[in-house]
Each structure stands twice: as structure tokens, then as C-alpha cells.
Specification:
With 554 residues, this protein is α/β, with parallel strands linked by helices. It is built from eleven helices and 20 strands.
């Protein structure tokens, strides 16, 4: 196996916070691009003032100069509180909400930004850990309950929580690979424990949904309802063939070289003295280290442009749409994936283990299928609908900077989180920003206690920094509710109360502000004040806002 569904996304350089570094990543794009040069985030900060000055005015009335954007007589609203003030002598006076951490979100009117992939708010979900909607499919293919196994989340569960996501305000629901994964266990990174590909990364059949995830009708209902609520749907998809499990080999009658080396139920195999679980395939490999009748070495070759033979085991697979023909590897994969677009109107894919040529073919066939689906399903199609493929391995589209109120080494004051997080090279312009507290030193690490009065401000300010970042942003499920226990812990539905409820409300206000103003994602950035308060403006041809930060008294 390779990396997990979310590993590449969470941290391209360190592959931080994966389900396991032995599982394949299925999050990748060569399609999301940065804003045009006219809209790039720019700093007009004096080069002589690079010392970060964090304001400590606290929650009190603050008089703000707004003449850079608005004229005398204009009525300005703080989108966080709903309070208004009229511009007099180029100034307004407002009091930040005590829940905001000292932030004023100033606007003169709501634009309700037109959807753009380049400025969208993604919500990234490991489906198995989100919500269990159908308990009957929890142990499909004979999978066993383990800590690193499937735990019940499914497509029906996603559907039941779409109202929650719509209320939160996200644009794109990005789910882990729903395709049929290998059926049995695979060794974890250490080789000493079994794990199942609950987050994707070991796709057995690109033409079937995994039964643990649900049925095609359930997927259709999910996508249709998401569209009705104004949200797009993207799938993570890994394009590399998987390593087999003993369950698959037995089911598909792929025989070992030495049958005596295996028990009656092959998946019950245990390592001998001096071995660990990584030796589970020893009885099947030929002298070249390959397993006959499985995916051949030709499928592993990145630049193979020749017609390719399908694995023989598909002849023994009872449920599949795989059909043999004279096709290349890229033609097979692009055809299998675009078929799902034709079936459901999927809005895009996040691919991993791809090549530029394969990504381009998936994108082209996906766009063609999407165009036809929208034509045939006009009553379901979203306004301004378009298809997108993201290939994380082609370019570094993601920034791990949570200290987002800085540009080209400009100081920031909005967040106090650890500066050791992975940061994007200033020479590269990322297209998406996300929080990176999945590295074992972070707030969501299981070794750290629950959100409390001492650390609440860190969660809140991280959200503010993220959601005021340029370009697209991505929320990992549970960021907004301070989900504890590690990256793949279950969504903490029963804990959304008290401080977590307050934190979630903070996220909602910021996402709404972001949704109402295209300049947040795609606008010119200009710092206009450093003390006694910190302020910047974002503006483009159709929209302008000002953000003021007064800080909190120590």
C-alpha cells in the first residue's frame, strides 16, 4: 500500500497525520490555479517596519480610519456583530464582539460572491469517521472491528449531515475515496498490526462503490441533495493499483506456491518467529517478486502508453463493470472515473499517484461527462457549474501557513499558534490554505486536553487566520468543533456545546463573511494600520472590505 487518503493533503512535504504512511494518498491537482497577477495578494508595508506589533486594546470601542475605502456618510457594518456606524470625518467607532477575539469585519454591503474554485471553502471528510447512517454495512466483506479499521461512517451518514454543512457555509464537500477498497487487512507502517483502508488508498475496483460506504442509490441521493443545498461534491481517488490482501487472494482463487503455509481462512495467517505482518504475501510471490493474476508490473509504470492487460482476477469477481478491451492504462482509469461523473454529476476529483498525462485525460473526459450530465439533468445542475481535477503531486497548491495575515514576511498578529508548523515557500503562490495541527505537537493531538479557557483563543484565532486567507481554504472535519484524539478520530457530534458551540459559531460568522465577499479570496491585500490597532483592506474590481484587529488585553 501507499499513503492514506488525506496524507498528501494535510502536509505535502512531511506527509503528516496520515492514517498510515503505508497507505496510498488519494488527494492531489493540476487544475486549481492562483488568482491572476492583478489579484495577487500584495503588501504595501514599509520595508522599514517589519516588527510585529500585536495590539492589546481589548474589547472596547475603537475609532477606525476608513477613508481608504469609504466616504463620509457611508454606513458601515461589522459583519461579526451586525452593528453599524456612519462614516464621519473619515472615521467610524465600533466595539468588537467579545467572542471575536478583537476582530471587526467591516463591510458597506454584501456582495454574495459568485462561486469560484479558486476561492472556495472546502470541507474535507474521512467518510468512515464522520457519521454512521447505516449500521448494516459496518462489516462488509467480512472486515473485522479494529482500532485501525472501518468504524461505520458512510454515505447515508454524509447525507444526514448535509444540513449541518450547509449551515456552516462550506462550498465544496470533499470526501475520502468511496470506491471499493481491498477487502482484508494490510500491515500498518510498523508491520506489527493489521489495518483496513477506511480512508481509501487501496482501490480494488474503480467501477464499484465500497459496500462499507453504501450503494449507488445512496450516493445519488447524497450528491443530489448537496447540489440542492448549493454545495459541490468532490471525491478523493487514488490511481495506483493496490497491494492485495489475503482475503482478496482467497476470494478470487489466486493460489499460493505453498498451500500448507496458510490456514483454512487465509486472513487468519500469523507471522512465524522472526517475521512480522509484512511477510503475509511470501507464499504467493514468484521469482520476480510479483503475484500472478494480480495487477501486473505494467500497471505500476507511470509512463506506460501501450495497450495493457487487465488482471485475471476480474473474471472471478462477481460484482464489477470492468470490461477488457484494447486500451492503455490511462484510458482505462479515465474512463472508469468519468463514468461516475456521468452517473451522479460529481463535480470533481482529487487524484493521487497520477501523472500529468493521466490527470489531463481524467480532467478532459470528466469535463465532457460533466457537460453532458448537466445538459441531461438541467433541473439538478448548479448555477455556474464547472468540473475540476486537483492533482496535489503536480504543483504545491497548498499552504500550511496558519499565520495567514502576512505577505512576503509581513508581520502578523492574529494568531499565537506554534510557528514550527510547515510553511510554504514565499516564492510559491499557494492556491489553498489549511490548518496544520496534525503533527503531534498540535491542539488536536490526543495527548493534549480538551478545549478549555486556556487554549480556546488559539482555536478561535487559528480559524480567523485560516478563513481570512487568500485563495481557497480547506477545513478538515472537526476543525470547527475542536475535535480531539488525532486526525482520524470520529467527528465529535456529542461534544458540540459550551466552548465548542461558541467556537463553531465563530467559524460560521467568518465563513459567511468570506462567502459574501470575493475580495477575501481574490483581492489585493494592503495593510493600512499597525498600532494601536492592526488593519488591512482587501479589494478587487467589484468588492472591498476592511478587517480590524484590536487584540485582547493580557
Amino acid at each position: 500500500m501507499k499513503l492514506s487518503v488525506c496524507a498528501t493533503f494535510i502536509s505535502l512535504s512531511l506527509l503528516v497525520g496520515c492514517q498510515s504512511t503505508s497507505l496510498t494518498s488519494t488527494d492531489s491537482s493540476d487544475s486549481i490555479s492562483t488568482a491572476d497577477s492583478s489579484n495577487q495578494i500584495e503588501s504595501t508595508t514599509s520595508s522599514n517596519n517589519n516588527t510585529a506589533i500585536c495590539p492589546v486594546l481589548g474589547i472596547q470601542p475603537v475609532t477606525v480610519s476608513v477613508s481608504d475605502l469609504w466616504a463620509n456618510g457611508d454606513v458601515i457594518t461589522d459583519a461579526y456583530t451586525g452593528n453599524i456606524a456612519q462614516v464621519v470625518n473619515g472615521e467610524i467607532t465600533l466595539t468588537p464582539s467579545r467572542h471575536s477575539g478583537g476582530v471587526l469585519l467591516l463591510e458597506s454591503e454584501e456582495e454574495k460572491a459568485r462561486f469560484s474554485w479558486d476561492g472556495a471553502t472546502f470541507y474535507h471528510i474521512a467518510t468512515d469517521r464522520f457519521f454512521n447512517g447505516n449500521s448494516w454495512n459496518d462489516h462488509s466483506y467480512g472486515r473485522q472491528s479494529t482500532k485501525e479499521g472501518f468504524q461505520g461512517g458512510d454515505i447515508v451518514g454524509l447525507t444526514k449531515k448535509l444540513d449541518y454543512l450547509a449551515e456552516l457555509g462550506v462550498d465544496v464537500v470533499w470526501i475520502s475515496a468511496p470506491l471499493e477498497q481491498v477487502h482484508g487487512w494490510l500491515p500498518n507502517k510498523s508491520g506489527n498490526s493489521p489495518e483496513y483502508p477506511y480512508a481509501g488508498g487501496a482501490t480494488l475496483d474503480w467501477t464499484q462503490l465500497d459496500t462499507n460506504m453504501g450503494s449507488e442509490q445512496e450516493m445519488r441521493t447524497f450528491v443530489d441533495l448537496a447540489h440542492q443545498l448549493g454545495m459541490r461534491v468532490m471525491w478523493s481517488v487514488d490511481t495506483a493499483p493496490p497491494t492485495p490482501t489475503l482475503s482478496d487472494l482467497q476470494q478470487f482463487s489466486i493460489q499460493p506456491n505453498n498451500p500448507d503455509a496458510l490456514p483454512s481462512y487465509w486472513s487468519e495467517w500469523q507471522p512465524q518467529e522472526g517475521q512480522n505482518l509484512t511477510h503475509y504475501l511470501d507464499a504467493f510471490k514468484n521469482k520476480n517478486g510479483e503475484i500472478p493474476d494480480w495487477w501486473s508490473e505494467a500497471w505500476m509504470e507511470e509512463n506506460n502508453e501501450n495497450a495493457i492487460t487487465l488482471p485475471a482476477f476480474f473474471a472471478n469477481k462477481p460484482s464489477t463493470k470492468v470490461k477488457s478491451s484494447e486500451k492503455t492504462k490511462n484510458e482505462y482509469l479515465a474512463g472508469w472515473m468519468s463514468a461516475w461523473v456521468s452517473e451522479f454529476g460529481i463535480d470533481g476529483f482529487v487524484v493521487s499517484n497520477s501523472t500529468p498525462e493521466l490527470t489531463q485525460k481524467i480532467e478532459q473526459e470528466g469535463k465532457d461527462a460533466f457537460t453532458l450530465w448537466n445538459k441531461d439533468n438541467a433541473y439538478k445542475a448548479l448555477e455556474n457549474a464547472s468540473f475540476r481535477v486537483i492533482d496535489l503531486q503536480q504543483q504545491n497548491y497548498f499552504s500550511d501557513q496558519i499565520l495567514s495575515l502576512k505577505s512576503n514576511d509581513e508581520p502578523h498578529c492574529l494568531t499565537k499558534l506554534n510557528a514550527e508548523y510547515v510553511t510554504q515557500s514565499q516564492a510559491e503562490k499557494p492556491s489553498m490554505t489549511r490548518l496544520t495541527w496534525f503533527d503531534g505537537k498540535s491542539l488536536s493531538d490526543s495527548s493534549v486536553g480538551s478545549v478549555n479557557a486556556d487554549n480556546y483563543a488559539d482555536y478561535r484565532d487559528a480559524a480567523t487566520a485560516l478563513l481570512l486567507s487568500p485563495n481557497a481554504v480547506s477545513i478538515w472535519y472537526g476543525d470547527e468543533t475542536a475535535k480531539m484524539g488525532g486526525i482520524y478520530s470520529k467527528m465529535n457530534w456529542n461534544e458540540i456545546k459550551d466552548q465548542r458551540w461558541s467556537l463553531q459559531s465563530h467559524w460560521k460568522k467568518l465563513i459567511e463573511f468570506r462567502n459574501n465577499h470575493s475580495s477575501i479570496a481574490n483581492g489585493e491585500h494592503q495593510v493600512i494600520k499597525r498600532e494601536p490597532y492592526y488593519a488591512f483592506i482587501r479589494k478587487n474590481e467589484s468588492d472591498s472590505v476592511m478587517v480590524v484587529y484590536t487584540g485582547e488585553k493580557k
